[in-house]
Amino acid sequence: MSELAETTQFLAAREPWSRLTPTEVAALARRAVATYVRRGTVILAAGSPNSLMHVIRSGAVEIRDADGALVDHDEEGQCFGQSSILEDRPSRFSFTATEDTLLWSFDADVVRELVRDPGVLRFFTESRLGDTTRQASEDGPVLQVAVSDMITRPPVTIDVDCTVGDAAVVMHNQRISAVLVTRGEKLVGILTDRDLRRVVAMAQSGTTPLAETMTSGPYTVGKDALALDVLLGLVEHRIHHLPVMDGDRVIGMVTSGDLMRLERSSPLYLVGDLARQHDVAGLASVMGRLPRLVSRLLRQDATAEDISRIISRTTDALWQRLAELGEQALGSPPVPYCWVALGSLARQEQALGSDQDHAFILDDRAAPEHDAYFAELAEYLTSALVQCGFSRCDGDVMATNPRWRQPLGQWRRIFTDWLSTPTPEAVLHSSIFFDLRPIHGEHTLAAELQRRVLAVAPQSTRFLGHLAKHANDIAVPIGFWRGFVLEKHGTQRDRLDVKKGGINPIVDVARLYALKWGLPQVGTRARLAAAAEHGAEVENLLNAHEFLGYTRLRHQGMQIAAGEDPDNFIAPGELSEFERRTLRDAFTFVGRSQRALTVSFQTQFM
C-alpha cells in the first residue's frame, strides 16, 4: 500500500474525516506533512501562535493548561491545534509528546476547508478538552463523588468463548467503546475500540477468539471508590475504561468521558449549597458563584446548549428554594398553585444577566379573599430574585401583576382569546407565555394548561399566520452584500445585537413549529428536532442557534472578567475572521428560515 493510500485509509476511519467523502479525504491527505517528535518535545506551547493542525499517527500527546495542570491525553487518530486556528488566537494549551510520536500536520487552509462541512464544524465545536484536574482545588467535591453514582447503565458483557467479530457486533449495537469479557459471572478481560483497531491493522480475522485479543485481568475499581480514584487509575495506567466491582461481581464501567461529564455536572454542588441556605442573603451569595462557573465552562469548550441548561437548572433550584422560604414565612398557601417560569428560563436557555418572567396558576377553588396571600408571596419572590441578581421584567410580566396570577380556568380563557383573536398584544405575549414550565407547586395545573394550548393551537391558523408574520418582521442584522448591519445610535453603536437579530428569530420559528403541530417540547432545540420529524428543515438553524448562543456567552464571559454587566451586543472587531464569517452564515440561515415562513403561512395576507 502506498504512503498516500495508507494515510487516506487511516484518516477515513476516524472523526472528523469519516464525515467526508473518500475523494475529499484523499485530496486532503495529499497535503499531510509527516513529522517525527521525540518523547518530551513540546509541540505547541500555551500562548504561542499556531498555524498547524496535527493528527497523531502513532504515539501520545499530553495536554496541559496555561498553569501547567493536566487536562487530557490524546492518542492515535486524535487531532489537536485546530481550535487556535479557527479562533485566530494563541493556543490556550500546551501539547507535549509523552512517547516518540509521529504526526501528520496540516496547514490552516486545510482546517478552513474541513469546517466547510457542517458535520466537521460541529465535531470541532463540540470537542471537549476540559477535565476535572485543572480545577481540583476549586471543585474538590466533584472528585469526592462515589463511583457507584457515576455508573449510567448496567454492564455490557460478552462470554470469553465468543469471537472478536461477536464483540464488535455487541459494541456496535450497544453504541459503546468497550465491552467487558466474562466467564460465567467472573470478569476476565476487556475489549476496547483500540483493541479492535489493532485487530484490523494486523489483518486478523473476525473469528479470532476474544481471549487472544482482549486485555486480560483489567485494572478495576470498587463500588465504594471515589471519582478521584477513577481519575488516578486512568492516568496511572493510561487507560480510558475502568470496570467497577462489587466484590467479585462487575456492576458497571466508568470512563474518562464520565469524569468529564461529572465535571460539567458540578453545578449539582452549587445546587446543593442553594438547598442548604436559610435566607435570601445566603442564596444571593451562592448565586454570585454562577458567573465564575460559566467562565470555567467556556474555557473548557462546553457547548452553549450545555451552559444554558446549567444556568437554567441552577436558577430552577434558586426559585424552588425561594418558594420554600416564602411559604415558611407566609404560611401554607390557601389553595394549591403553581409558580411557572416563562420565556428563556422555561426553555432552559438562560444566559447571564437575564431578567425574571413568571406567573402563578391558581387552583380553580381560589377565591378573591385568597389574593392577598398570593400577592404577598409574589412580591416576596420577585424582590428576592432582584436581590439574587435577576432584575424585574420591564414589561411587568411577573406574578406581582394581578393579571398574571389567575385560576386555571381564567388562564384557559386568556390563551383561548389570544389564539382566536390575534391582536398585536396577543402576538407579543406569545413570545413569553407560550414558553411555560412549572417550577414549584402543583405541576398538574401547568400541565393541564399546556394540554389545552396544544390541543387548540394547530387549528388556530389565523393566529399562527400572524405569529409567522411577527417572526418574519424581525430584521436580521445582515445586509444585501452580507455585511453586518450595526446599531447606529446610543451606547451600543457599531455593535450587533445577537439576541434580537439572531437568537430570538430562531426561538420564534421553533415556537411556531411547536404550535403548528401541537408539539409538547418547550426548549428551542428540542422543538426544532421534533419539527424535523414533520419535514421541517432545521439542521442549519440548529447549528446557527448553537453558534450564536456560544458567541453571546463567550462575550458575556469576557464582560464579567472585565467587571462589566453582561449584555447581548458584540463588536465585530472582537471576533476572528472565521467567527465573523460563521456569524454571517448563521444570520443568513436565520433569514432564510424567516422567508420560508412567508410561503408556509401566507404571511403576505396578514
TrEMBL record:
Residues covered by the CBS domain: 150-210, 214-270
Organism expressing this protein natively: Tessaracoccus bendigoensis DSM 12906
Ranges in coiled-coil conformation: none
Keyword entries, A-Z: CBS domain, Repeat
Residue ranges constituting the Cyclic nucleotide-binding domain according to the UniProt record: 16-115
Protein name per Swiss-Prot or TrEMBL: CBS domain-containing protein
A Pfam family this chain is assigned to: cNMP_binding
Gene Ontology MF terms in the entry: [protein-PII] uridylyltransferase activity
InterPro entries documented for this protein: CBS_dom, CBS_dom_sf, CBS_domain-containing, cNMP-bd_dom, cNMP-bd_dom_sf, DUF294_put_nucleoTrafse_sb-bd, GlnD_Uridyltrans_N, NT_sf
